[in-house]
Amino acid sequence: MExxxxxxxxxxxISPDKRGDAENLEKERKPRDLTMNWLxxxxxxxxxxxxxxxxxxxxxxxxxxxxxxxxxxxxxxNFNTGIYFGLAQVPSYSAEVFSMVMSCGWNPFYKNEKLxxxxxxxxxxxxxxxxxxxxxxxxxxxxxxxxFKHVKHLIxxxxxxxxxxxxxICTKDMTKWKRMFFEN
Length: 184
Ligand code: ADP
Ligand code: RBF
Ligand code: MG
Known about the structure:
The protein is α+β, with helices and mostly antiparallel strands and 184 residues long. It has helices spanning 22-29, 55-60, 69-73, 151-169, 175-182, and strands at residues 38-48, 65-66, 82-89, 98-105, 116-121, 133-143. Residues 1-5 and 7-24 have low confidence and may be disordered.
């Protein structure tokens, strides 16, 4: 069955009603057990970075490297849209594997009409890198996408996602996954 933004989430998670209130988001995150967020099977995606609307850097100060539609369509059919964490590599830049946070969804704040898969790599790059290969390993789920009353709440939520991802990724030895997915 085709899933869209109206489909209920498959995973039991945070109430989608707590929207736009950074304090509520904070409260909801705290009691959660970090081990429950890992996917049973990580998902590997790769493709050339394409242009989006340019909002990530300009409006949020958080650039996201966008995958082309063909990659978005290759996601498993039962994939829950939402915010994920994992690993990322831009081979033409460096063999290094970085932590990442990723939005696979409809960007309700911007009312996008197409599903997008966008990765914020937790690393400061000296330049943009459009048109080159990006590899990601989606390792865990953070939350569903939310709508927000104000862009500052979206920015706060993304910053919290980054902190959550960094903290969570440290709890697992990913050497094997790095070897399996990112060394060639
Ligand atoms: P777009 O809407 O075209 O995706 P963004 O404002 O989201 O534009 O910026 C994304 C671009 O910024 C990426 O395609 C990449 O070239 C560059 N970039 C620089 N640093 C990063 C980073 N840490 N993570 C992801 N992309 C980055
Ligand atoms: N967009 C939303 O509309 N709601 C969200 O809850 C949301 N969370 C995000 C979390 C992360 C970690 C990232 C990287 C992006 C998120 N976005 C969200 C997408 C954001 O709107 C998008 O990256 C910008 O519009 C730039 O394309
Ligand atoms: Mg982007």
